[in-house]
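[job 0412] stage=fold_complex status=start
inputs:
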Amino acid sequence: MVVMDEDNCMVDVARYFLTFTQLESCGKCIQCRWGTRQMLDILEDITAGRGRPGDIELLQEVGQAVKDGSLCALGGTAPNPVLTTIRYFRDEYEAHINEKRCPAGTCKALVSYYIDAAKCQGCGICLRACPSEAIRGGKRLVHVIDQAKCIKCGTCLEVCPAKFQAVARVSGEPFKAPAEPIPVAAKS
Amino acid sequence: MILEANRMTLTGAAATEEKKIKTINLTIDGVRVEVPEGSTVLEAALKAGVYIPTLCYDPDLKPYGACRLCIVEIEKMRGLPTSCTTPVTEGMVVHTETPAVARSRRITMELIMANHLADCLTCAKNQNCELQEVARYVGVDQAHFDRLRKSTRTVAIDDSHPAYIRDMNKCILCARCSRACHEIAGAEAIDMAFRGNAATISPFGNRGVIDSNCEACGECIARCPTGALLPRDTRQPTREVKTVCPYCGVGCSIFLGLRGDEIVGVRGDTDSPVNRGGLCVKGRFGIAEFVTHPDRLKKPLIRKSGKLEEATWEEALDLVARELGKYRGDEVAVISSAKATNEDNYVIQKFARAVLGTNNVDHCARL
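[job 0412] stage=fold_complex status=done
writing structure:
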C-alpha cells in the first residue's frame, strides 16, 4: 500500500510507475514494448508542460489497447496507474495540460520559486544553501532568485527559517517579486 | 525377413495413427470449417478463406504471438486472444472483425508506424512490403496518429555483410528472421537482444553480422515483412523463371527474378518438396554472378598441343570414345559431378561399371 497526500502529483506518480514498467517490458509484443513507451512519452510531456489537448483521451485509448492486447500480465496491468489516476484525478491532468500548472507542486518544469519581498529579512541562509548559486542578495537585502539559474530543487524553501517563510513555490500563476535585491528596509 | 516385419508394423502404426487424427468443426465469421485437431484458429481461418492480418506469423515457423494483429473474439473466451496461438476446439465460434478487434488492431498499427522509419517512398521494399499491405488493410486514424509521439531513436545501419544490409530502424520485431535462423537454418546467428523499447534483433555482442555465425542462407531476408533486411541487389524483377539450382546435388527449385535477361534475384519455390522454399548462400546470392561469369564453360575444350581450344560436342565425344577404347577395366576412373542430375549420374556409373568394366567411380558430392 502506498499512502499519498496533496503534495503528491498524480500525473507524476503515474509517470513514475510507468517508467518502471516500460523498463521491465521484455519487448516481445508491440503493445507492451511501444505502448508503454508511448504512454510514458506522453506523461513526460505532460509533466514537462508540453501536454497537448487530447492527451488524456490518447492515454486512455492507448492504455486500454495495451491492457487488452498485451501478451502477458505485465502489459495487462502496466497502464493501470495511468488509467486509475485519470479516472480519479482527471482535474490534475487537466491542470497540467491546460493551465500548465502542477497542483501538488512537484513537476519541476511547471513550478517556480520566488522570494516574497514582504517577508524576506535578508538573512542569507538560502543564498548560502542554493546549490546552483541562483540567489542574489546580501546582508539586509531582499534576496532574489534568478529563474534562469534555478534548478527548482526546493532547498531554499526548506532552509528558509520557519519564522520568515519567505520562499514561495508557485505553479501556474504569476508572482510579484523584485528583479534586483532591494534593501529590506525599503520594502513597502 | 525381420526388416519386412518391421516395415509391416510401421505401416500398421502409421495407418492407425492416421485414423486417430480427429477433425474439429468450428465457425469463423459464419463460415463452417473442418480442420485437424491441433490446428490454430488462424490456420482454420486461412482454410475458411477468411483473411486475418498478421506480421509475425509464418507457416514455416512455430507460432509466436508478438504482433498482436491476428487477435479475434471467440465466444465464451474472455479478452482478445491471438488466433495464431489459440488451438481450435469443437464448436468454437470466432469473430474476426468486431469493433473491439478493429480498435485494438488500429492502435497496434499506429504504434508500429510511430516507431517505424517512414521513408516508404525511397525504401527498396516499397510496393513489395508486407507492412504496407497490412497497414493498408488495418487502416489508421490520421488525427489520432498525428497526436502520437514519434520515436526519435535511431541505430546505426549494419553494413558489414557483403550479401545484405540490416537496418534495424525499420524493424518491427516480428522475430521472423531470428526464428528462421534458429528453426530453419540452425545457424543461430541473430537473436532478440536488450529489452523493452531498446529491444532489437542483434548478432552476438551487438557487433556487425559479418562477425556472427551467419551463413548468409538468406532465410531471414526472405521472411522480413519490412525493409529492415534487404539484399544488396534490390532491383525488382519484371518476370520470373522457374528452374533448378545448378550448384549441388540437392536440386532446390528456384525462381530466378529477371529484368530483361539479367538475373536480379532468386527465391526458393515453396511448393518444391526438395527445399520447401529454403535456399543456401550459393543459391540465394551466388547465381547471377555464376551464370554470367566470363570463366564459365559453355563449350567443351580439347587440349591441342598443350593449349585448350574450344570444340564442338561431336568432336569432343568422338575423341573421348576413341581414347577410352585404348584402355580396359581399372585402367580408367570416372569422376562425375553433383551439378549433373541424378539420372545423368546413374547413367555415368552404369557406363563405368557395365561398359568400361571398372568400379572406379567417384563424385564430388561426397566431400
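[job 0412] summary: The helical segments of chain A are 10-24, 30-47, 55-69, 73-77, 80-88, 90-98, 125-129, 155-159.
[job 0412] exit 0
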